[in-house]
Amino acid sequence: MTEFPKDFLWGGATAANQLEGAYDVDGRGLSIDDVIPGGKDRMKIVQSPDFDWTPNAKYTYPNHEGIDFYHHYQEDIGLFAEMGFKTYRFSIAWSRIFPQGDETQPNEKGLAFYDAVIDECLKYDIEPVITLSHYELPLHLAEAYGGWKNKDLIGFFKHYAETVIDRFGDKVKYWLTFNEINSAAGFPFMSQGMISKTGADDKKNVFQAWHNQFVASAYAVQAAHAKNPACQVGNMIIFATNYAFDSDPKNQLAALKFNQGFNFYCADVQVRGEYPAYSESLYEMYGFTGADLDRTPEELALLKQYHVDFLSFSYYMSGVTDVTGKVDEKTQGNMLGGVKNPFLKESEWGWQIDPTGLRIGLNQLHDRYQVPLFIVENGLGAKDTVEADGKIYDDYRIDYLRSHVEAIRGAIADGVPVMGYTPWGCIDLVSASTGEMSKRYGFIYVDLDDEGHGTLARSKKKSFAWYKQVIATNGEDLTADHLDY
To answer: Where are the transmembrane segments (predicted)?
Structure first.
């Protein structure tokens, strides 16, 4: 049986905007996520032509409270340590450091909070992996500057990145720049801070915003390498292994184009340091050319010099491409839907479960980039039932995660260098896609419902004991029938 590397980074992942809460505490400013409503219609609301970042009393905003990690971080990290985490991926809320996003002086209370979180991790020998921007652009930068289409944001992000890397770079080795940067292909309001009223529906703006983020990411790489040569910086994309529905050449070509436009475009620039040959063909699909984008020779040189050290990605599901109209049934997914795959089962939220797709994806990414790969999100969103004795038997989650760990093992056997695995929402938090608490991912249950009612008490699910065993055996024992729970 293929072994996982001895230094494999087992852990878990969260995001500030989905669990910290304390949205107006200790000088924190508002982020775009603070004005995105909760509930199943949140995506539809934000994509409406009328949406303008203004809070509305008829909606709820569960991210304001999250699970109050801000006041529970010691307890939560202690539970991560009990599971044996080698690493913990979390994000810094930009508006906790620079409340408006464009200040010159940082908020010391915000820096002190993350100092405390990092030190709490290090106390248990948990390696922090920090995401600099995870769907929480300071609201002021979206309202006053129009989001990432504005090149002024490059300088603001550069200052923010340099500030936190200078503060924490001696203690934090691994950094990620932009979370799921390619998600702007469908949802530019989350990763680029742009809505219909500020140009989100114009694809040229999306590609300009991506360029600006690529340049900002390069500045973060430059800052991290200058601060500490041991620092490694990765990019982060959604990766959804994509299949043509059949052998029809039209579907095969469409699947190729999907991969170029969604799975590879952002990674090609950030990992290889230059725009891919198919860029012009991609731009032409949307009615503009590369000459229409504001990209300077100096910026292109910066991208080439300060490309990322590794590639990290989220993987929840695969997709199917059919442009011939042979199949009508559709499915949901992580920021994207598509044609239903008749060979796969789905989660409660319609996400197609495909562990083999993870092995395929790992091979594809390594073949293409030849850099270390890090799976920083993977998991099953499901409704959990608390039994009368307080137990939560989430065998469905164990089955999902087990099959994906086995797929990672297979990819390692194929020769793919995988750095680590941090399942998403290692503790229950607010769902990014629906704003719900009932869509749970964690090994740790948090007593909180979709209306914000509950005690916030933490309790261990069966998967907690299972993952503890997985880490303790470095991935050798994936069974669940003899767990002490």
So the answer is: none
